Amino acid sequence: MTGGALSSLELPRIAVLGAGHVGPVIARVAIAAGYDVTIAASGDPERIALITQVLAPGAEPRWAADAVKDADIVVLAIPLHKFAAFDAALVAGKLVVDTMNYWPPVDGVQELFEDRQHGSSEIVQRRLARSTIVKTLNHIGYHELEDERRPVGSPERRALGVAGDDPGAVDVVAEVIERIGYDTVRLDSLSAGRLLEPGGPVFGVSIRRTEFELAVHAEAA
Amino acid sequence: MTRAPSDAVGASAGEPAQFPLVLGLDTFGDVTHDDDDRPLSHAQTIRNVVEQGVLADQVGVDFFGIGEHHTDDFPLSAADVVLGAIAARTTRIHLGSAVTVLSSDDPVRVFQRYSTLNAISGGRAEVILGRGSSIDSFPLFGYDLADYEDLFEEKTNLFAELLKGGPVTWQGKTRASLRNQDVVPHTESGPFPAWIGVGGSPQSVIRAAHYGFSLMLAIIGGSPARFAPFSQLFQQALERFGRAPLPVGVHSPGHVAVTDEKAREEFWPRYLEVIRSVSKTRGFAIPTKESFLYEVGPQGALYVGSPETVAQKIAANLTALGATRFDLKYGMGGLSHRALMTNIELYGTQVTPRVRELLM
Question: B9 to chain A, minimum CA–CA distance in Å?
Fold first, then answer.
């Protein structure tokens, strides 16, 4: 992307937790947008060295604790069924981007998420009480994330929702999404972020910002 | 930033020349409809699949695979039995699963069934192992979906041991241990070909390399070229594990008819219906005509069109992906047996010779 006067030193540092389907793709597009990116799985970084080198060249594989410690933004890209065992202390005090979804037919029934009153990111926030959760990237396919990027002003530029209870955190994450190559539509709470979930009006749908805004406002009304 | 799919390609992907080109067909045994558009019985659907496999052999297709499913729309839960029937009526075509959901099966039984198929067919059996993106088999056989990764890892390990032939000693958490156990039937001439089907998990790519299985990329949506790094990852992992290069294959859905228009007209309404019905459980977005045409076009994952269109797309993507095998997943719930037979005939008589010509 062009137009960024900021060097990577001034941009927030990003740690991606998860080296499965999703993590390397997010790392790759973040690197392309100029960010410093580390990536971590549940164990020894040596185990994901080859995956990182080939699928997200430029990202640095690290132990999760080291990656998080030096990061301004932590992207949680693990399978949701692993979340119940995720160590909340690991990301205490951090801005955490929740990219996960709850699909019982795919993940199996997860006791923790069997709560129809709350969205999955609200439940993530409850468990990671000392972190600030922002919900985004859950409603675009990991296979689309690279292909559908467009520069600012492109009539084809797709919009993504960014939802959170902390407006400052939402701004920080929205800035990242925009630099990666998407317009953003901000939702002012994790509760409103339920509109981004499976079965919601914008889930998996490639639409521009005005259509996106219409879709979420129609639903919220 | 551009929209060229080559964005995803870090470097040239693999060296395809050293393996023979293999062009196959896969089916999930979708229930077909009769001429009045009424669904046929499971039994008739299965008998039709046998006929389709026999025709595939007659028209020169290299491989015929059946993907295990367990639902009303996809009643082919015992693929190996159907493959055995096809084996008895054919002499040339290779036969295999596409995929066997190994996570919810017993590797010993899978080995026995495909080793038996190998015996019946005179050495034409193959197996493609999957972790299970179609998850109906987990509750059916009493497995917890949350364990699928661990189940697949351990069972792949055991299956690799079984394939070596000879008595097996193995210990794990997911089944009884084996101590110096002879597992029969023995194969006549070494292990039959085994592949791992991968939908997007880099760990599965590493796992295939680790155990020395070939890599089958299941590409069902989006740009095929974005999988090129997976080919590279596979070959580099093989090197790291001290193994010789192994082939990479591609499995993608499609439909061949006499013209592009006819293929699209036949396929689109069925595709829409099938994806609509699985979208809730699988998290797929419901396709629009626009997204469908994108998938059918050069940037997408569907091979729907005339023989020339489909052949051009296969040749282009095999080259981009460093792959030497393509299996077209034909059929889509609700299409007629007649349309599927035409698809198979065109694939064998026109598409495959044209792909060979293009890749010469």
Answer: 9
The sign of the dihedral angle between the CA atoms of A129, A133, A139, A145 is negative
A108–B232 CB contact, under 8 Å? no
- In terms of Cβ atoms closer than 10 Å to its own Cβ (0-12, 13-18, 19+), residue B20 is exposed
User: Rounded to whole angstroms, how far apart are CA atoms A63 and A53?
Assistant: 16
Provide ipTM, 2 decimals.
Answer: 0.88
**A181: chain B residues, CB-CB within 8 Å:** 1
Residue A14: which H helix or E strand, with range? Answer: strand A14-17
Tell me which residue in B138, B221, B229 faces A143 most closely, judged by beta carbons. Answer: B221
A149 in B contact zone (CB under 8 Å): yes
Mutation site for B-interface testing, chosen from A46, A50, A78, A205 by largest number of B Cβ within 10 Å: A50
Number of helices (H), then strands (E), belonging to chain A: the values are 7, 8
Compare all CA atoms of chain B with the CA of A83 and give the residue at the minimum distance.
Answer: B146
Distance between CA B349 and CA B58 in Å, rounded? 10
> What are the pLDDT digits (tens) for A141-164?
888 899 899 999 999 999 999 999
Using alpha carbons, select from B300, B324, B309, B305 the residue that is nearest to residue B354: B309
Instruction: State the DSSP H helix or E strand holding residue B233, giving kind and residue range, or none if neither.
Output: helix B228-240
Whether A81 has its CB under 8 Å from any CB of chain B: the answer is: yes
Given CB atoms, is A144 within the 8 Å cutoff of chain B? Answer: yes
B211 C-beta neighbours (distance < 10 Å), count:
19
Q: Does A86 touch chain B (CB under 8 A)?
A: no
Query: Under a CB-based contact definition with an 8 Å cutoff, are residues B23 and B325 in contact?
Result: yes
Strand ranges, E, within chain B: 22-27, 63-66, 94-97, 100-101, 125-130, 168-170, 178-181, 194-198, 214-218, 248-256, 303-305, 325-329
AA identity, residue B103: S
Interval B119-139: pLDDT, tens: 999 999 999 999 866 678 888
Is A96:A125 a contact under the CB 8 Å cutoff? no
Question: Inter-chain contact B144–A108, Cβ cutoff 8 Å?
Answer: yes
